[in-house]
């Protein structure tokens, strides 16, 4: 972990029960209970009609993403605190074809486990040099790359003191609206992984394992950062998918 | 042989620093004479507003084209990109300003929210759907109605579309994964 864990400051001890206590967790629990539809989603027969809007999707370009948007360590005048990392990989469809020129968005807590978001009441320090949001476009081979710092773990405020493992939130677009993906990436060997409630919402163990990145020394910047590799496979049909005979 | 897909995970409560962008809900070019407003509430299983949902729309242009245009995150005020992203406010309300689609008579909608392990796809039919629309025809009448935007009485060029995530009046959500 990037930040050493000193004994809690007395003032923080007093803040915690009120700030990160029952109400925040109750809101999360309510969302889990009352937001998931009760009826099964209606299957769209595939291959879908060629005029179905969902088989195509939004287009992004260099106007959408600045040259430094992928580097979360260079968005302020000073360097953020924490362990610098590079996270990179390849985005493909299920046939292994690269997803080119599409938008990848990233957001995360700082090294102390705090989001620069007004709703985050976890009494860990904010970092004036870290917002924790970045974006990039995939290249001609479907590759993306971010420079950032390793996020800290944070508590969920639950009665049994459950904590989130370190994670990065990712948002991805494919060539079709149906390929949209929002997910989270984890770090290998994190002792909090087996008990992470959000990760465990994925019931299949093999699928859960695909959310964990791999240390890849070739991706880091020598003497500056360690690299983690995380490849992403987008699901769902697209216009090109059905052209080639459908997914069945 | 297909690669196994990366699983989806909830968007959580803290996406606000990263995903919303200026004029994200203004798909229509500024001052466009044919612009319409689509608005409504997102509600949970008890009817309470969902103040932290993120709605993404994708649609055909008025001429029916589905090619989109780059610049979706940097509105230049002139280009219609076909894509919009709008978070709900504290009352669970959203407003989209857009142009009515040609061709496919609906807006594709993707709903993200804390508590959902996976986003939800649905459709907002904003113009009179053709009688032969395969999806609408396959639904019972009460469920079909959840996909139809209603012209707002007394307000020109304004449509209402509410999203009910769960329970009575639950919106029809679509499953695109049948291809596996
Ligand atoms: Fe998080």
UniProtKB/TrEMBL annotation, chain A:
Q: Which family does it belong to?
A: Belongs to the intradiol ring-cleavage dioxygenase family.
Keyword check for Glycosyltransferase, yes or no: no
Intradiol ring-cleavage dioxygenases domain mapped to chain residues: 87-115
- Organism's domain of life? Bacteria
Q: What is its EC number?
A: 1.13.11.3
Tell me the SUPFAM superfamilies matching this sequence.
Answer: Aromatic compound dioxygenase (SSF49482)
Q: Which Pfam families match?
A: Dioxygenase_C (PF00775)
**Keyword annotations of the record:** Dioxygenase, Oxidoreductase
- According to UniProt, the name of this protein is Protocatechuate 3,4-dioxygenase subunit beta
Q: Which GO terms describe its molecular function?
A: ferric iron binding; protocatechuate 3,4-dioxygenase activity
A Gene Ontology annotation in the biological process aspect, one of them, is: 3,4-dihydroxybenzoate catabolic process
Q: What is the lineage of its organism?
A: Bacteria, Bacillati, Actinomycetota, Actinomycetes, Kitasatosporales
Q: Does the keyword Oxidoreductase apply?
A: yes
């Amino acid at each position: 972990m990037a930040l050493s864990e000193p004994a809690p400051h007395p003032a923080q001890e007093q803040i915690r029960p009120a700030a990160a206590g029952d109400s925040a967790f109750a809101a999360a629990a309510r969302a889990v209970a009352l937001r998931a539809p009760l009826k099964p989603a209606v299957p769209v027969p595939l291959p879908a009609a060629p005029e179905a809007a969902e088989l195509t999707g939004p287009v992004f370009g260099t106007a959408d993403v600045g040259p430094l948007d992928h580097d979360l360590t260079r968005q302020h005048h000073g360097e953020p605190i924490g362990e610098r990392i590079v996270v990179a990989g390849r985005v493909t469809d299920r046939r292994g074809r690269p997803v080119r020129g599409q938008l990848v968005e990233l957001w995360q807590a700082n090294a102390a486990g705090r989001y620069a978001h007004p709703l985050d009441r976890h009494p860990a320090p904010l970092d004036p040099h870290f917002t924790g949001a970045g974006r990039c476009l995939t290249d001609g081979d479907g590759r993306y790359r971010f420079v950032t710092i390793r996020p800290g773990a944070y508590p969920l405020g639950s009665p049994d003191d459950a904590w989130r493992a370190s994670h990065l939130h990712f948002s991805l677009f494919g060539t079709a609206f149906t390929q949209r993906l929002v997910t989270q990436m984890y770090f290998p060997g994190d002792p909090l992984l087996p008990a992470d409630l959000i990760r465990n919402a994925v019931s299949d163990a093999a699928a859960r394992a695909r959310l964990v990145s791999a240390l890849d020394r070739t991706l880091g910047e020598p003497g500056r950062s360690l690299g983690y590799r995380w490849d992403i496979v987008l699901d769902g049909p697209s216009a090109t998918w059905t052209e080639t005979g459908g997914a069945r | 042989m297909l690669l196994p897909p990366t699983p989806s995970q909830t968007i959580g409560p803290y996406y606000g620093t990263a995903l919303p962008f200026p004029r994200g809900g203004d798909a229509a070019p500024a001052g466009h004479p044919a612009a319409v407003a689509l608005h409504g509430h997102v509600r949970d299983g008890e009817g309470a507003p969902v103040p932290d949902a993120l709605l993404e729309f994708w649609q055909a242009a008025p001429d029916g084209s589905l090619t989109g245009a780059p610049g979706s995150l940097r509105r230049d005020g002139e280009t219609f990109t076909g894509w919009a992203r709008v978070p709900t406010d504290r009352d669970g309300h959203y407003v989209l300003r857009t142009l009515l689609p040609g061709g496919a008579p609906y807006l594709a909608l993707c709903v993200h929210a804390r508590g959902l392990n996976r986003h939800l796809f649905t459709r907002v039919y904003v113009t009179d759907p053709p009688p032969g629309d395969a999806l609408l025809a396959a639904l019972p009448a009460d469920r079909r109605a959840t996909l139809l935007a209603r012209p707002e009485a007394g307000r020109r060029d304004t449509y209402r579309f509410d999203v009910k995530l769960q329970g009575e009046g639950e919106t029809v959500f679509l499953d695109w994964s049948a291809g596996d």
